[in-house]
Give the backbone structure.
Amino acid sequence: MNTQNHTRPKIGLLYLDHVLRFFNRSNFKGWRDKIEQVTYHWGNDKDRFVAEVKRKKIDVLIGNIPATAYETFREIARELPGVRFLPSLDSQFSNKSKENVTHFCEKYDLPIPRTRIFYEVEEALAFLTSTDYPKIVKRSYGPSNYGGYFVHKVDNAEEALRLFSEKRYYPAYIQDFVPMKADIRVMLVGHQPVCAFWRRPPEGEWLTNTSQGGSMDYQAVPDGVLELAVKASKAANAEYWACDIAVSMDDDYTILECATAFAAFPYIRDWIGQYLIWLLAPQDFRKPYFAHRNWEEIGKIDSSLLRTMRYITFGQADYSTDTGEYAPADDRYRLLETSYQREEEWPSEAWNFQGNTPYKVIAADDSPFEKASPSLNPHIEQEFDTGIEQLQEVMIAPEQSNAADSKSLSEEELLAFFLQVKCVGKTLAGDIVSTLGAAETLRVLNHQPEILLQFRNLKHKKLAIIMDAWCEYCAEYQYRYEEAVE
């Protein structure tokens, strides 16, 4: 490798407080120059963060940005026009929300379940009380479904309205239910599939998440699924990418999720790192090679070992074999160089619907469902508070908040809340509140609950119970975590 570093960009790893790290320096084996680290501390940290990147003279920032910081990093990227973000902010557009996945797929004519998104309560109510069922309702905001706990199947209007009353999701994100055999996750590097596996639901169930009892295997993933994932990766111009693709009973394929943020074993993050350093310094690094359908053999290794295996490499077949035959080619799924585009494809002024859409919060005793339901659907006798109007209660990015203008809860009040949740004991409640403090605990509950998964003995199922209790707590005491939207 060339030891001259004058042509190599300076790399910085982008981290955020309380967010699990996708990369570390060891993923970029062979990069001889110093790799910097910069950490965003939330709140009003934008100016300090920009100054640190400039002071360290970083050329490339590598790392995924969580949904709750996405819009702030759009602003940061504009203040750092000479810094390349990997993945690009446009490639990470789908990370922010399910609705962004829908916008992305619709623009590039990628197959998805028929989806409706409502920001106005009256429109959502009219749709829910007149549409056909079953439907799938998802929490839109955020990159993860937390093991499927925020994905719901509703079989009639009464179930749908009760769900929104209880969960208070905003916006209302509703999809047609597609009966499916299974779904398939495909991970790609440089638009080449490097790992793919089936996720099959338990007998008689429809959720495929392994945390919900689903099973997985790596064999015989259809080429049509791989080709769809490649098409999506190329449309996103993503250096690395993952797609969840549903396989219907009729073997039709539809995209359920796609993003640059996904769970991956360390050896796959090593592959991404090797691809990125080749991309940044092709004069110094050899283009990596990933054997096609390697996952069919690697997937036979016990997962406990796969979680610790590093730097798996492949020898590329020569032009001829020992018998004189030509070696099989992988040209169909080649590793490609992704292009760097400075212009924005998804500017926030046009595509940040949650931040740009004005909405009037309506009191529970003046619920639009209560007024509209008799005329919309006289067959539903029980009336529910819709819950979908609670924009300020749910999912406003924390970087937009102003703590001085927000009502606060004390550590004692938050501790009392956790202790009333049946699955949370005194030790866990105390650990959460004492570790995060009152203000940060409040922010996490409202905007980034996945952070709680870092506490010992707190898994996805317990997190879902906590968030259900938090929604009930906010509704019961009419507590509103008000933040400035503008």
In short: The first strand starts at residue 11 and ends at 16. The domain at 11-91 is CATH 3.40.50 (Rossmann fold). The chain is about 30% helix and 15% strand. The two ends are 50 Å apart (CA to CA).
